[in-house]
Amino acid sequence: MDVLRPALININGRMYRRNIIKEEHYEEEEEEDFSYTGPPESEDLAEDETCDTISIEQTDKGYRCAIDVPSVLYKYIIGKKGETRRRLESETKTSINIPKPGVEGQIVVTGSHKAAVSSAVTRVEVLVESFRKKQPFTHFLSFPLNDPKIQEGFLSFKDEVLQQCSQDNGVEGSIFQNPAKLHLTIGTLALLNETEVRKACEHLQECQNFIRDITEGTPLPLEVTGIEYMNDDPAAVDVLYAKVNAKDGSDKLQVIADRLVEHFVSAGLMLREFDRVKLHATVMNTLFRKDSTGEDTAAPKRQTTSEREAFDARNILKKFGARRFGGFELNSVLLSQRYSADCSGYYTSAGSADFS
């Protein structure tokens, strides 16, 4: 890393430098060992670095600052047997009050000096930001493809593949997508409490204006035609997906997806993984061999594990490469909840933005 141009970390719109000095390691969550031995992931903050944007109140006894932290992250601030909190308090000469486990609330930092409170709050926020990135995602933005016509086309495809290609290595019924959950994943989010879910819903509603500008206030006619594979070897495939395009040949769907990611990344609710959203409708995935829920919402690069058994897709691509699944009109983008299902069988929706 260029020491003159260190990496930056964004915390609630404030930028801090990240100086790599020593790699720190935290034990797995199951072991409940969250000892604090320095800034997480070697994020070295200057001792005198404070930020005027932190809302610090003056009280009769000194200074006070309350920050919102999801309860699932409390343990990282507390540490094993309270070690992390005690060290933070000792180094900053402050008191850090944390709600009981499982109780949503605010972490309150108090101290005799404003700079000390500001320093403690900054360290807590860096810890929170670091461990937030390690949390599994809970929700994702999706374009639903579970239109009855598309489901019918998919089930026909599945039947024909099993009839004609079941002798090929690894091809069997369990690796097909659940037709009720056909979708395009735009991006994933780790929303750790109801407040964060509401915030994400509000941001999705804000996106409705630019979405309607792009669609001109009408549903977007789409065509689901053709299949492709993710990796380089068609004889050893983990993910087979259907291609989705606007019927008028425009890039409106791609533009909407990219703008959504841009908005949610700017809001601090999503991490950018690619320059452009890879729009793909998974139809077969070897993850499904071990996951009976038919869950497929992760980004493509997260879908590779040594335990997966690939399948030979050469005959499928030869016979069904130009397969037409059908067409329909897309009229919404959804904030979908992972590992869930509504009455239709699709993922439960926490919020939505409509095209018309």
Task: Describe this entry's structure for a reader.
By secondary structure, the protein is an alpha+beta fold. It is built from seven helices and 14 strands. It has helices at residues 74-78, 83-92, 114-132, 148-165, 194-215, 252-266, 314-320, and strands spanning 7-11, 14-18, 57-59, 62-69, 94-97, 105-111, 139-144, 183-189, 220-229, 239-246, 281-285, 324-330, 332-337, 349-354. The strands form four sheets. It has a four-stranded antiparallel sheet, covered by helices on one side. A four-stranded antiparallel sheet has the order 8-7-13-14, with helices on one face. Helix 2 (83-92) packs antiparallel against helix 3 (114-132).
In short:
With 356 residues, this protein is of the alpha+beta class. The protein is 27% helix and 24% strand. It has seven helices and 14 strands.
